Amino acid sequence: MGLVLFLIIGLAAGWLAGQIMKSRRGMLGNLLVGVIGALIGGFIGNAVGLAATGLVGSLILATVGAVVLLWILSRVG
To answer: Which of 41, 42, 59, 75 ranks highest by number of CB atoms within 10 Å?
Structure first.
């Protein structure tokens, strides 16, 4: 069940990040970015000493990670 919840949070974070960054990667691209961004958000959170508590905290960290990833992708290509 943990993997399914992780994927759902990542998908939601990808959609949110796409809206925030006004990404033109399309729905599928943003959803994929969200799942990868969830991993990045967890890494960033651990690096600065933040822990995601509950569903909302996980969604916030995943969205931050997805926004960072979209920002990096916009600079690279």
So the answer is: 41
